[in-house]
Each structure stands twice: as C-alpha cells, then as structure tokens.
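Appendix C reproduces, verbatim, an entry submitted by the partner laboratory led by Prof. M.T., so that reviewers can inspect both the input and the predicted structure.
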Amino acid sequence: MSAAPPTGAAAAGLLTTVPAGRPEPGRRRRQAAAIFRLEVRRSLIGGRAVGLYLLALLPVLFYTLRMIFASHLTDTADVGQATQVFAGTYQAFILRLVVYLGCVEIFGNLIRREILDRSLHYYFLAPLKREILATTKYLAGLTVATVLFGLSTAVSFALCYTPYAGVERFLLHGPGFEHLAIYLGVTFLGCLGYGAVFFALGLFGRSPLVPAVAIFGWEWLNFLLPPVLKRISIVHYLESLCPVPLSKGPLALLSDAPSPWLAIPGLLLVTAALLGFAAWKVRRMEVRYEEE
C-alpha cells in the first residue's frame, strides 16, 4: 500500500520526536504555531479557497457595478443615501449571506476535512493535547474568516461612498470612519459566533449542510420571531451593534435591541461555551473512517 501524502500533523512536523528537557509551554507554543500556519495555508491555498475568494468578492463586485453606473443613482450629493444603502446591504447581504456561508465553509470543515482526507489520526498520534488542536484550528479559521470578510467589508464600504460628493467631509469630519470601525467589529463578531457554531457542528463528522440550512432559515426569519426566540439567534445581537438601525418592515415583531454591553459579552460567552464543548468533543473522539 502506497504511503499517504504528508497532511495534517505529518505536514506540520508534529510527529517528530520531541527532545527531552524542553520546557512544556515552549513545546506547546511551537505545536500550536505549526498547526496554525498549516491551517491558514490550507484555507487560503487550493481549490476550496476559490469559493471563499469568490464569496468575499461578491459585495465588492456589487458596489463596483454600482459605482460604474453611478449616473443612475438618485442623488450623488446625498451621502446619507449611501449610509442607508450600505447599512441595508451589509445586514441583509454581507452579514447574513457572505459571512454566514463563509463560516459554514471554513469552520464546518476544519475537522471534517481531516476525516474525509483520512488524516485525522496523524494529529491524534502526535504528542499533542487535543484541546490545543481544537483551539488552534478554530483560531486559524477565525483569522482567515476575519481577514477575508473584513477586507470585503472595508472595500465595499469605500466603493459605496466613492460616487458621492462630500464623502471626504463625511469620513474625516463625520461618523464615516467610526461606522467603518463598527462594521469591521461586527464582521469579526459574526465570524467569531458563527465560526464557533459550525466548528462544533463539524465535529460530528457529517456534512454540516442540513443544520446550516436550518440555522440559515432561523437567522433570516429572526425579525418575525417573538422577542423570547429572537434571543436564540446570533444575528439578533449582531444587528443591534450596527451603527445604522433599519426598519424590519410591517411584519416584524417589535422587541428591544440588546445593548452593546449585553450583546458583546453574550456573543463571547456563547463562543467560549461552544469552543469548550468542541475541545471536550475532540478529546473524546475516536477515528473510525469506515463510518464515513
């Protein structure tokens, strides 16, 4: 039988014998750094990365076309129009679709990809704590998602305001850069929360498609849910942090938006709980490729 290609722990060099006498914290840091570099490289290079790049480019393409056909805009002197347009497209398109689907692809496959490639056992054979493996894989996915979709958000924001007169005043002397900073922060929190959800779901070794579709529907119909059920939704907290509030339409059920002092700690606690569950699950996992 031919030898398997060097993937996972083998490619990261984690199967090599660790010399005696090295400090344990230093060894763990080197292991985590090796896994982190490997996971980032695998997420950004290869056939699977093409879909992520295309997804991140969708809002950029939309605003590029809008800028090209700027003559059809209602009033290019009204910067407030751009503020409303970006607020709407960010919440409905970038946050609910681009960031969401990107997190499904990145985090849902961090462990499942190893199972499908039959390389997970390399990590488990390495002198490596599984909690470090789970945490480092999640942090690598979070880095990739934040960079890709953060850049997509920033470029889209710039393109949205480019056709408008007086944009310099809005950015330099108005709330422009503050709005951009908040949108980037919400994008990061979206990657953080959705990433934790799909990283935990991906540990069950099966396709995350069915739960992803179910959660997608729940998030999209959030505005129709009663206030109690709205709280069981990541997008409910993310939208409350956005700098420009939007009307949800006549069918929306009224509810008080959570304050940033509740929304941000809440998202962090949910992420920590899901990451703790993921570490617990990885610690007790057994490699059974024949079941896939």
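The chain has 13 helices and no strands. Additional entries are available on request from the coordinating office.
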